């Protein structure tokens, strides 16, 4: 995930944007940090999904085919 100081800076810029507004440089920094955050979030979510197996009440593996293929590609 994103470093704590970067998350703090995102929040700081968001507060400033609501109150006083951002300079062009700050707006650019905010956009860059948000892109980094979204990229880190997506990677974490993808990594988590690659560990998921779906089991129905009968005990059968019903993991979607697309996910199984993605897991296979990732781990082999």
Summary of the model, kept short:
This protein is mainly α and 76 residues long. It has three helices and no strands. It is found in: Cytoplasm.
Structure, described:
With 76 residues, this protein is mainly α. It has one domain (4-75). It is built from 3 helices and no strands. It has helices at residues 4-19, 24-49, 65-75. The longest helix has 26 residues, at 24-49.
* Percent helix range: 55-70%
What can be said about the biggest beta sheet? none
* Low-confidence regions: none
Q: Quick one: overall form?
A: elongated
Global structural class: mainly alpha
Would you list the SSEs in sequence order as H and E?
HHH
Give the N-to-C terminal Cα separation.
25 Å
Query: What does the radius of gyration come to?
Result: 19 Å
Subcellular location: Cytoplasm
Pfam family, one: DUF896
Protein name: UPF0291 protein GK1331
Region (Disordered): 57-76
């Amino acid at each position: 995930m994103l470093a704590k100081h970067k998350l703090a800076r995102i929040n700081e810029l968001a507060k400033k944007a609501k109150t006083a507004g951002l300079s062009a440089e700050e707006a650019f920094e905010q956009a860059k940090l948000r892109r980094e955050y979204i990229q880190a979030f997506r990677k974490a979510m993808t990594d988590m999904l690659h560990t998921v197996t779906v089991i129905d009440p009968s005990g059968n593996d019903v993991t979607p085919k697309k996910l199984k293929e993605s897991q296979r590609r990732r781990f082999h």
